[in-house]
Amino acid sequence: MHTKQFVAYIMGGPEFIAQLKVLDDIGTDYVEIGIPFSDPVADGPIIMEAGQAAIRAGMTAQKIFDQLKTVNGQLNTRYLLMTYYHTIETYGEAAFMAEAEAAGVEGLIIPDMPFEYIEQLKARYPERQLKFISLIAMTAEHERRQRIAQSAEGFIYTITMNQITGQNGNFHPELKQNISDIKQHSDVPVMAGFGIRTPEHVKDIIEVADGVIIGSEIVRRFNEEGIEATKAYLTTIREALDKDSTTAQ
């Protein structure tokens, strides 16, 4: 595990296993694999289009599980599933979690499920191995951020801007202070996501965050530039994180 962590997002399309292996090669700590969904309310246009393309190609939760089983135990990177609750409900909660665990999935991110419902879901499955990753919006009240942080598992996904994913713009003005505050109330790493694309973004936010989450930019590059060019880009992100870790020590 690296001092500063790299969390990458990819869509669960036909090429996702090849992309997962590239991310493993460059030293990504976690990979979030999106299960395509017809009405992805939290996704920006790049991820939304990738999801629609995956659906057109016939990708389903079951196909993603089956393909993950072929690499289970072979990768250093840990992988998670990002899915809307409707997909879990349709599959069947208990069956979905059992299948995810059988496929080597580390945890779940459910962006349309509020904290209170996530807590109920945790309570229904006390024997589970899966971790439920908490999202904390910078616009949330201080007490709510603290409550979510205290019950977090795996890592915390802080939403750095009050916007959908991948949009341009500066980080939230109070972002660094809020991340520092969240870290005081949690025992798990605090990652910054939404809108991070460049090594410069990484160097800026990593002053306080334990790692970064990059989604739309990775999806776009895999789609437009292919495996090798995207691997070169991913390496610059990994190097920015490692350089900062070395400097900070």
TrEMBL record:
CDD domains: Tryptophan_synthase_alpha (cd04724). The keyword Lyase applies. The active site is at E32 (proton acceptor), D43 (proton acceptor). Coiled coil: none annotated. One of its GO terms (molecular function) is tryptophan synthase activity. It comes from the Bacteria. Pathway: Amino-acid biosynthesis; L-tryptophan biosynthesis; L-tryptophan from chorismate: step 5/5. Tetramer of two alpha and two beta chains. This is Tryptophan synthase alpha chain. The lineage of its organism: Bacteria, Bacillati, Bacillota, Bacilli, Bacillales. The gene is trpA.
